[in-house]
Amino acid sequence: MNTTFDVAVIGAGIVGSAIARKLAGHELSVALLDARDDVGDGTSKANTAILHTGFDAKPGTLESRLVGEGYHLLSEYAELTGIPVEHTGALLVAWTAEELDALPGLREKAEQNGYHRTEIVGPEEVYRQLPHLGEGALGGLTVPDESIICTWTTNLALATDAVNRGVTLLLNRAVTSVEDLGDRTVLRASGGDVHARWVVNAAGLGADVVDRLFGHDRFTVTPRRGELLVYDKLARPMVNKIILPVPSSRGKGVLISPTVYGNVLLGPTAEDLVDRTDTGTSEKGFEFLLGKGEKLMPDLLLEEVTATYAGLRAASDHPDYLIEADAGRRYVLVGGIRSTGLTASIAIAEHVAGLARDAGLALVPRERLPEPPRMPNLGEAFTRPYQDAARIAADPAYGKVVCFCERVTAGEVRDTFRSPIPPATLEGLRRRTRAMNGRCQGFFCGAEVKKLLEERR
């Protein structure tokens, strides 16, 4: 490309998309790069999809502050754009005397983080709220504002908003080297070089690799695989809120959570790997999760597992988010962003913009910005097209169901091809519509959905 962008953001996951959107609210030309063929196709697509209050973050850290701010910012953005969110609340369950003794400390930590609505409850209240919970719970800590959200729609909304604001989206651009030309940086990438005066590194699992291309050696990303089991919608009445374990040094542990799609999740595992592409599931992982599930909620294991998946989290040897600006190289690192990055994304973008401004990037707000996009609803708690008689009367395509497990219509599939960021693959289409995500996993609808995709190419 002959264009020299004011800013190039590497990584079109949730955090990178939020940063590109924020910067595009100013008089800047912005490029958003990703190594894959779609936005949100890395870490962002495979997590537990929880909108965190930040009650259990380490007080005083950057992560704590940005998660707390991000919770409110993303909640507001979800209302504007139609990202499905359900404020289910959560119950952190203590199963041992040691975990029970830890509850007052967790409540105090929540207070230090500015969250004041937790409450310690006894076993009677635990089982009143969760009658299907396994035997032996000694008490719990309520967190009434923990919520579930659609991570796919969040990523797509932020990226679409960015594109509508004028961001140039460059997919299939894996950055392999960088060259400093003094007034700009050349990102040597598959699919073509990109020139930019400033670079923001939000590359997730590859953030440490890109950081070294800019001459730094300050952290290492370890891919941490999290495997999850997805239970059928018939299990949802058993789980009306997020069931959390008492966290340990390894993370938040195995949880049970409803999803906005009407399913129930059990997971994740936490296995450190070397291969940054290994998102395969394992027999060992499933055995571990089933063992945990037998203790947490044995009735859940009587329900059908409709899907399994694994995601890679960007675990880091740095104890906090690592967000720093290098004014000399006109470069900002956004590294060490753990699973809380979903919640913190918009706050991270605000923080990055402030750091870049202080380091010399001129930020002049644009006078008029397009309205945020209104996203298709994928959530079961809200009206879907197949349920909307007026919409079907106006356009019969919304009454033609092509995926019967998930009730996805031909109109919804068609709309994805007309969107600012259309799907390039079946997986991309799945994340935009829920097609092939149900009990049959595309066995019945896969051929027709694939035909619709191929007809649009």
UniProtKB/TrEMBL annotation:
User: Which part of the chain is the BFD-like [2Fe-2S]-binding domain?
Assistant: 401-455
Which InterPro entries does the entry mention? BFD-like_2Fe2S-bd_dom, BFD-like_2Fe2S-bd_dom_sf, FAD-dep_OxRdtase, FAD/NAD-bd_sf, G3P_Oxidase/Oxidoreductase
Q: Where is the FAD dependent oxidoreductase domain?
A: 6-354
Specify the domain of life of the species encoding this protein: Bacteria
- Kindly name one Pfam family recorded for this protein: DAO
> Gene3D superfamilies, from UniProt?
BFD-like [2Fe-2S]-binding domain, D-Amino Acid Oxidase, subunit A, domain 2, FAD/NAD(P)-binding domain
Q: CDD domains, alphabetically?
A: GlpA-like_Fer2_BFD-like
Q: Which PANTHER family match?
A: GLYCEROL 3-PHOSPHATE OXIDASE (PTHR42720:SF1), GLYCEROL-3-PHOSPHATE DEHYDROGENASE (PTHR42720)
This chain belongs to the protein called NAD(P)/FAD-dependent oxidoreductase
Which organism is this entry from? Streptosporangium amethystogenes subsp. fukuiense
